[in-house]
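Researcher: Can you fold this with zinc ion in place?
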Amino acid sequence: MRPRDRAAGRRVRAGNMRTGSNLPAVGEYNQTLVLDLIRRSPEGLSRVELSARTGLSAQTLSNVTRRLADDGLIIEAGKVISGPGKPRTLLKLEPRSRFAVGVHLDPVVDTIVVVDMAGEVIAHDEIPGLREVAPGALVTAVAAAVDAIVDRANVPRELVLGVGVAAPGPFDARGGRLLDPPLLPQWHNVNVREDLGAATGLPVIVEKDVTAAMVGEMWFDRSDVLSDAMFLYYGAGVGMGLAVAGAPVRGRTGNAGGIAHVVVDPEGPLCACGSRGCLGVSIEPRVLIAEAGYVGGDPRSDLDRLVRDARDPGHPAAGVLHRAGERIARALVITNNLLDVDEVVLGGPVWERLAGVLADVVAERVASDPASTATLPIIVRRSVVGVDVAAVGAACLMLDGAFAARPARMMIAL
Ligand SMILES: [Zn+2]
């Protein structure tokens, strides 16, 4: 099923509406705001509906939609008759008007995708063998993968907005340079933004993988409900993507979201930081596999075996995954006590493998954890984007940078 379909039918929250401004100085903001509304309404919107939702005058709205149509971003798609008066023309997104490439650099599998303006993945590849490439040739290898996938997707290069790169932290957000991600030693001190930009001739954005995942999830959230949210990304490492008031939280250096050293189990395994039971080490795939008593082979098949064995309540694997779920839930509750979010999203490659067993444990435990100070139930759900969420999110960053309507951006423009 496509992410769009899965996201359909979600609740819409009143009071979360963003309104436009009729001042000429904020024309660009209005354009992104109107585009954002049209994008989130696959069935199309009329100018009258857009006017009602944005507070923009008919004249301003007419100018804005004409500019969007001139840029090829929206199309007129039929008319609807509703009540007296002349039929209304529906405006829809033209999904193939622009494209973006997303790359996820990851200790287990490097992924590359092309998405269209609707965020739909139109091409997907793994970049094999990047781990064996010499540090000096890494960027060239990624650039070759970008060229190959753009060709294969049959997308005009001039319609590609750029390349979003998601990678584990820490990184230097200002320079777009990876610093020393512990699980990617070959990428230490690589100037990804500049070097990949030079090699591809395309704009490049570099983002921490958990923030990219949060952005990807928000891009697919058609109901616009992900205002205050967190995204627990569970892959080779664990991290937390955050959104407050509808915008991703990056922090001072772009490295927000480190949750690995939150203590979730005082009896848990010893962490490199000196504490016992930090979240990161307590749910590390290697640790779970050892706790279940497996000898340990290919981590992916070991994780699948864990899920299979856990179906038998008497098997040690059931206890291991139950405890892992409780540990995750405790970290979510502690973070939620700090942030007070609407929604918790869980995703990442390891989560996708274990969700069959973990999802229920985590949801139940978040609802009943005595440490929780939540006064309303917290929605806990799986990522709608799925296993490629960091790569898709990285591509969406490119779309987001160009087209998402954020009042904060209007402030800067003013
Ligand atoms: Zn620790």
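Model: Folded with zinc ion in place. The domain at 225-383 is CATH 3.30.420.40 (Nucleotidyltransferase; domain 5).
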